[in-house]
Fold this sequence. Notes:
By secondary structure, the protein is α/β, with parallel strands linked by helices. The chain has helices at 17-28, 35-45, 48-59, 65-75, 94-106, 120-128, 168-191, 206-221, and strands at residues 5-10, 31-34, 84-88, 110-117, 130-133, 139-141, 160-161, 195-200. The protein has eight helices and eight strands.
Amino acid sequence: MNQRLCLILFGPPGSGKGTQAALLREKLCLAHISTGDMLRERVASGDEVGRTVDGIMKSGALVPDDLVNRMVADRVELPDAAKGFILDGYPRTVPQASLLDGALKAKQVRTVVVHLKVDYNIVIARLSGRKQCAVCGTVYNLPPGTPPESEVCSKDGTRLIVRADDRPETVKERLKAYDIKTAPVLEFLEGAAYRCFGIESGTRTPLEIAAEIEDRLEKEFGAVACGE
């Protein structure tokens, strides 16, 4: 492929966007751009913006568009995004999508939207079992009944914690925000003439989902894997 590729992973919290981005980034030689990760890094910095973002994320609300837009605009210009990039968690609002639409078309970036569809009950159960290492940031999806003594990071032995934005009460607020502000983004992207396709992600394995995404991309653009 001669043109850059933008793969937009779209879906509610817990639909598997981050997992798919991790599986696909090396296979496709695309940069993984996660607005959630960037925001959490800002929170970890402890500066004034980070403290503001921390309060917003803990409430389950969405971070203001202008801040997120600036972060993404800067990130896509880094060298590792030269071939293209995977957007994980962006755009989350119609104004964000409108700004992204203008930028993608101005730069003639080939774009595909993958809608990861999943039942909300599965989302709540899935996120309730998700924990993170407070030191290295590795995320673990723990099955129900996991013994507390096993809830440690396999890399450094640190006890795992529940992220503030993964607590059940916060997840419900995040899903409400998704329905109100993010769900309409898909209609906007379809109206902007982007190729969009849906994949059921609730009961299938991550590898099965990734294989279908790769197959859809190959049918859409031809070979897209690294070196092809």
